[in-house]
Amino acid sequence: xxxxxxxxxxxxxxxxxxxxxxxxxxxxxxxxxxxxxxxxxxxxxxxxxxxxxxxxxxxxxxxxxxxxxxxxxxxxxxxxxxxxxxxxxxxxxxxxxxxxxxxxxxxxxxxxxxxxxxxxxxxxxxxxxxxxxxxxxxxxxxxxxxxxxxxxxxxxxxxxxxxxxxxxxxxxxxxxxxxxxxxxxxxxxxxxxxxxxxxxxxxxxxxxxxxxxxxxxxxxxxxxxxxxxxxxxxxxxxxxxxxxxxxxxxxxxxxxxxxxxxxxxxxxxxxxxxxxxxxxxxxxxxx
Amino acid sequence: xxxxxxxxxxxxxxxxxxxxxxxxxxxxxxxxxxxxxxxxxxxxxxxxxxxxxxxxxxxxxxxxxxxxxxxxxxxxxxxxxxxxxxxxxxxxxxxxxxxxxxxxxxxxxxxxxxxxxxxxxxxxxxxxxxxxxxxxxxxxxxxxxxxxxxxxxxxxxxxxxxxxxxxxxxxxxxxx
Lengths: 287, 176
Description:
- Chain A is α/β, with parallel strands linked by helices.
- Chain A has 10 helices and 13 strands.
- Chain A is globular and about 55 Å long.
- Chain B has 6 helices and no strands.
- Chain B has one domain.
């Protein structure tokens, strides 16, 4: 699946034509009202077209991504994003008064994160992660560090290696499914649950699919951490990702302190660097 | 016995009277058709509101269902909407909605057309609660127009038929 083409397909025609063709290292496309659209690659944002964005352009992207039905994705919108076939679109603007329904009165910026499938990345990590499959492995990096890409590849390799994996794909970013068909290969023995919250989804997978490992992307909310604790008590391994610089730094955040101290995760995978210079560091998490 | 001159006059008078009656009948048909269109629009809006409230149904699905289950101009309007939704991303939804309405609902009067256009600016863009309010406002206006049209129906009908019959008769007398 070509994530770059999928993201480009959501843009207005003149922007789409102006994009450099097949830019595989592109990470994000950003649209800001009153500014030229930009492409993030190798850690740098570069303008790719002269015409400044208007709110109409942003609305066109959102309407294309949601089928002109922002109300149907209001749960995600409330979290500040919406997903379309693996492309996550971060949204900024003015939230409507009493915006509990996830409505925006106007839009000012969009960030289209380009999903990627990087086969072979983190190959050196696989033996350790496989050995720890009955426990917990946490992938840690700042936003945009490549957590989702690494998680996707680890799931694929572990699944092809014989593990039965239940994937809670809340935002449809890991599998990028369209009509039940996965856009990204998550391996031979993966069962993917899309759209459900992590807590609810993990319990559903436990009850119904008999997984050996449950994988989930970006555990950021208190209820996500609670879901992880509950799974850990059920004898199933966990492979998850979270925002942070390192496991040590995460321990300073009250929300993660208890979780990391509880021994649910015994292995941390830290992603360092950007673009082609990414490195993976494996450390044990001590209680 | 009628001579040739009289025959032509009689034939012309009959045609003229028939023409007047035909004009009255056409007017009546367009009035009935407009009422039917308004009725179906109100039904479609009620369905949309219920589907939005219950399932937060996406608009392409709603439009597809309405194009299949609604006859006449309103069905054609939703079918055009489904077709044109491929252009989402190039053109805003409200533009697609307005163009489909203008092309397929020509019987609507200005006020009704404005209400439909305003509704298109809210659909799909705002939370369900706000969309339901916009639908309710549009439906209220259409219902008022339907009621007004039905109240005036008998008087207008009598007036048009009377005028047509009188005009036909007058021309008949003049020609004969």
